[in-house]
């Protein structure tokens, strides 16, 4: 795999998604290279989450192709796509409240186990789980049910579950939404850490977070790619300022 | 005492009560009644697994109970007939033993079918239904419809199934007189033993990774998909296990009570099992077992005093439990235990509270 280090990991071509006549995505091409940290931004309704939904099999596209490391994803069921090596989080984090933090991570790490071995009780902590727990810094809460976690901690647990899956591509849907300043800071550090050895796509609304942590940015607007480039270039682009940044500035004023 | 040790102590105490005390103090008639409750408890254990742990509200366990019961009863009828037609077939004008019945003359086959039939049907149903993501109330209604259809089928095919009367009048249970006190004691001990073994097996399943996965499917089926598991497979396995347990319960019910008939496995008996599990506490396997024994005991006692009144009491109890104590008797016990432990432990060490959030509205 290392010899293709610079090749594209995710290739989306001519993607169209239509909900009851409403075109959510109207012809998007997007390429994410191996090892890249890509931010997807755009105003509400731009189609960011829909794009992730299509990649992960939650939504079926009307047309177009989504190729992951050469494998066509459209039409595959969700768990099959996960098994190919794509993991995602959701805007509203869903962790299993009745299970402990450790059990949540163990479950995420375990889908490659054969069903028969699932009948055994968990003894100890596997390496993948231990390192995920370490990365997200919830070691002290490992044996507590996930239901007691704060909003931020839940998001981190979700990211931890994602790492424990050992995916090749991580898709994070608004990881800092609803977080406090400190939590956002911590999530940013976490993101930087993960991006060092993973390919990551982040959907984000938070412009400050984007400025601090993004390098490559794709701007979506009304279901199309508006601009693509590094943060500075994208911010300087008048079209982006018009549809997104400009409006945010006006609102902020 | 650690929770683990306390669990073993309670299990040992209950085993002592069921295996030593009850046979010593109860008259044979009451012991036989208790054996019947234990049969229901086995079926309830399956419901605890499917509904409590897996979130599948199955209102048709009577079907699997019936399949197990009929498989056992068919063997007993053929054995009694000794090469002739079973008595009810002669009365219904059947002249030749139906092909469906023939293999049940072999006790090994019949006993295997007690488990195989329910598991196979539950697996088939599960694969069809869970793959299509049918769940919640829709699944519940579907299983209830299955129970209704099954009884209609049984009643309608009198020559094959004994119709409304079902299968009864057994004269020989593996070389013993089924009505003799000794046989009744034996079936009691077998039933209690099977319940104990299945309880421990179910407990192990709940504590295993599969059990954790099952709870995860119950609480967030869609999320589980994105962990790379197919929830349909997980649910199908749990549903099949619960069906197998109901089948075993039905098979034991036949020698204990001496009859299996459509009225014992239709919509109402299936619902009563679910109500019993809810009252006992569906989230704990022990609650399911407890509920089945206590509710059926209450039903018998109450019906002896005021026939027909039980249904009202049962319904009222169900409503009360669902609204006031959704975790049932076990939930109430746990609440009381925790409250007691808190009072004893003074001063209370502050639990690591979830970090206070300073929610900021994103721009």
What's the CATH class label of chain A? Alpha Beta
Order of helices and strands of chain A: EEEHEEHEHHHEHEHEEHH
Which whole number gives the mean pLDDT of chain B? 91
The count of strands of chain B amounts to: 2
Query: What's the quaternary structure here?
Result: heterodimer
Task: Provide the structure class of chain A.
Answer: alpha/beta
Organism (chain B): Actinomadura parmotrematis
Transmembrane segments (chain B): 34-52, 59-78, 108-130, 137-156, 186-202, 237-261, 273-294, 306-325
Keywords (chain B): Cell membrane, Membrane, Transmembrane, Transmembrane helix
Protein name (chain B): Urea ABC transporter permease subunit UrtC
Summarize the structure.
Chain A is α/β, with parallel strands linked by helices and 253 residues long. Chain A contains 9 helices and 10 strands.
Description:
The complex is a heterodimer of chains A (253) and B (363). Chain A has 253 residues and is of the alpha/beta class. Chain A is built from 9 helices and 10 strands. In chain A, the strands form 2 sheets. Chain A has a 6-stranded mixed β-sheet with strand order 6-7-8-3-9-10, with helices on both faces. Chain A has a 4-stranded antiparallel β-sheet with strand order 2-1-4-5, covered by helices on one side. Mean pLDDT of chain A is 87; it is low at 1-5 and 249-253. Chain B is an all-alpha fold. Chain B has one domain. In chain B, 72% of the residues lie in helices and 1% in strands. Chain B has a two-stranded antiparallel ribbon. The radius of gyration of chain B is 22 Å and the shape is globular. The A-B interface holds A 56, 77-79, 82-83, 87-88, 90, 94, 96-99, 103, 106-108, 110-113, 115, 117-122, 140-141, 144, 148-153, 161, 165, 176-181, 205-207, 248, 251-252 and B 204-205, 207-210, 212-213, 215-216, 219-220, 222-223, 225-230, 233, 237, 352-360, 362-363.
């Amino acid at each position: 795999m290392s010899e293709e280090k610079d090749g594209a990991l995710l290739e989306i071509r001519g993607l169209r998604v239509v909900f009851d006549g409403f075109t959510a995505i109207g012809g998007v091409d997007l390429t994410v290279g191996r090892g890249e940290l890509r931010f997807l931004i755009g105003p509400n309704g731009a189609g960011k989450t829909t794009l992730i939904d299509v990649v992960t099999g939650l939504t079926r596209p009307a047309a177009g192709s989504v190729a992951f490391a050469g494998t066509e994803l459209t039409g595959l069921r969700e768990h099959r796509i996960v098994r190919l090596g794509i993991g995602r989080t959701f805007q509203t984090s869903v962790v299993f409240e009745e299970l402990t933090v450790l059990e949540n991570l163990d479950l995420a790490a375990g889908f490659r186990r054969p069903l028969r071995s699932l009948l055994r009780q968990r003894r100890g902590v596997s390496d993948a789980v231990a390192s995920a727990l370490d990365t997200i810094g919830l070691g002290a809460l490992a044996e507590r049910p996930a239901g007691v976690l704060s909003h931020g901690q839940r998001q981190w647990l979700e990211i931890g579950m994602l790492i424990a899956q050992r995916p090749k591509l991580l898709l994070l849907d608004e990881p800092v939404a609803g977080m406090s300043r400190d939590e956002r800071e911590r999530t940013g550090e976490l993101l930087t850490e993960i991006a060092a050895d993973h390919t990551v796509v982040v959907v984000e609304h938070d412009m400050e977070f984007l400025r601090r942590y993004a390098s490559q940015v794709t701007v979506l607007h009304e279901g199309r790619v508006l601009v693509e480039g590094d943060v500075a270039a994208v911010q300087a682009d008048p079209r982006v300022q018009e549809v997104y940044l400009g409006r945010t500035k006006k609102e902020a004023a | 005492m650690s929770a683990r040790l306390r669990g073993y102590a309670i299990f040992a105490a209950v085993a002592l009560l069921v295996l030593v005390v009850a046979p010593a103090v109860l008259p044979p008639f009451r012991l036989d009644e208790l054996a019947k409750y234990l049969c229901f408890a086995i079926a309830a254990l399956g419901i605890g697994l499917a509904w409590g742990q897996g979130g599948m509200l199955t209102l048709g366990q009577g079907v699997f109970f019936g399949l197990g019961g009929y498989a056992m009863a068919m063997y007993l009828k053929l054995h009694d007939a000794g090469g002739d037609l079973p008595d009810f077939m002669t009365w219904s004008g059947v002249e030749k033993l139906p092909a469906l019945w023939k293999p049940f003359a072999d006790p090994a086959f019949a006993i295997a079918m007690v488990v195989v039939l329910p598991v196979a049907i539950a697996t088939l149903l599960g694969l069809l239904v869970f793959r299509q993501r049918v769940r919640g109330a829709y699944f519940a209604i579907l299983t209830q419809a299955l129970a209704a259809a099954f009884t209609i089928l049984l009643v309608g095919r009198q020559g094959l199934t004994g119709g409304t009367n079902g299968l009864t009048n057994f004269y020989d249970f593996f070389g013993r007189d089924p009505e003799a006190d000794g046989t009744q004691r034996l079936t009691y001990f077998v039933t209690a033993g099977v319940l104990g073994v299945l309880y421990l097996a179910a407990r192990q399943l709940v504590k295993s990774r599969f059990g954790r996965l099952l709870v995860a499917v119950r609480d967030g089926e869609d999320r589980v998909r994105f962990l790379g598991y197919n929830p349909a497979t997980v649910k199908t396995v749990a549903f099949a296990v619960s069906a197998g347990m109901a089948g075993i319960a039905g098979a034991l019910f036949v020698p204990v009570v001496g009859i299996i008939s459509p009225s014992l496995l239709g919509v109402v008996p299936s619902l009563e099992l679910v109500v019993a599990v809810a009252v006992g506490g569906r989230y704990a396997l022990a609650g399911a077992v407890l509920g089945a024994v206590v509710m059926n005991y209450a039903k018998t006692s109450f019906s002896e005093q005021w026939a027909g009144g039980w249904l009202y009491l049962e319904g009222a109890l169900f409503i009360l439990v669902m609204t006031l104590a959704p975790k049932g008797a076990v939930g109430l016990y746990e609440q009381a235990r925790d409250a007691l432990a808190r009072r004893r432990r003074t001063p209370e060490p502050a639990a690591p509270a979830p970090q206070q959030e300073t929610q900021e509205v994103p721009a």
